[in-house]
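Same chain as my last thread, 228 residues:
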Amino acid sequence: MYVFISWADVSVAERQEEARKAWVSNLPSKTKEEKALVEKLTPEFCLPEYYQLQQAIEVNSDFKNGLPLDPLNRDLLSINVFDPGQDKSAKYQLHRRLPPEVKQPVSLAARSFLLKSFPGEWLPGSSRGNVTFVGFAGLKDFLKNFASCCAALSQPLPPSLWLADNVLEIQAGDATQLVESLAYNADSEKSREFFQNALLGWFGPGASASRDADVLRLAAATLGFLVQ
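reply #2:
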C-alpha cells in the first residue's frame, strides 16, 4: 500500500517567505487581473502553516524569545499523512500544538498515527513490506529528521520506519510539469483553473505540507498511485 507524506520546516518556510516577498514585489500590477493576482499571493495562501505560526507568536508574548521546544521540534512546522487504502488522513501543525494547548508535539502526534494505523509493521525484526512511503524528493532525509525529533522527546521511532527501503521519492519538477500538462490538456476552463491553482504560489517541497500534499496527490492520482 502507498502512504503519502508531506512535511514542512520553519527554516525552509522562512526562506520561502523572503522569496515570496521579493517575487510579489516584482510582479506587474497595472491591470485588474494583475492586481488580483498580487493580492492573492499572500503568506496565508502560499505558506499557510508558517503564516498561522506567526499569528500564534504575535498573540502570545511568551513566544517572542523562542518557542518552548527543543531545536529539532521547534523547526518541524507540519506533517501531512494520507493513506488512500484506508481513506485516512492526518494533519499536524506546529501552531496548533503550542502552550497552553495540552497536545503532543507534531513529531509525536505523527508517530502515534503511523504506529496505530499500521499495527505490526513496526515491530522489532519486521521487514515492513506492506507500506511504501511516497513523497517529494527529500523524503528519506525527512524521515531521518523525523526520527531525531521523536528521539529528542524520548519516544524513538522504530528503525524499520525511518531506515526504510520502501520509500518512493517524486521529483518536484516532474510533478510540476505533469500538473502544468494537465492544465494544458483540460477539457474545461474550470478544470484548467483547478490545476493552475494547485501550482499558483507553490514554493516547492518543505515550506508548506498542505500545499505540497495538494500537488503530490494530484500527480499521484494521475500516475495511478491512488488506484488500489
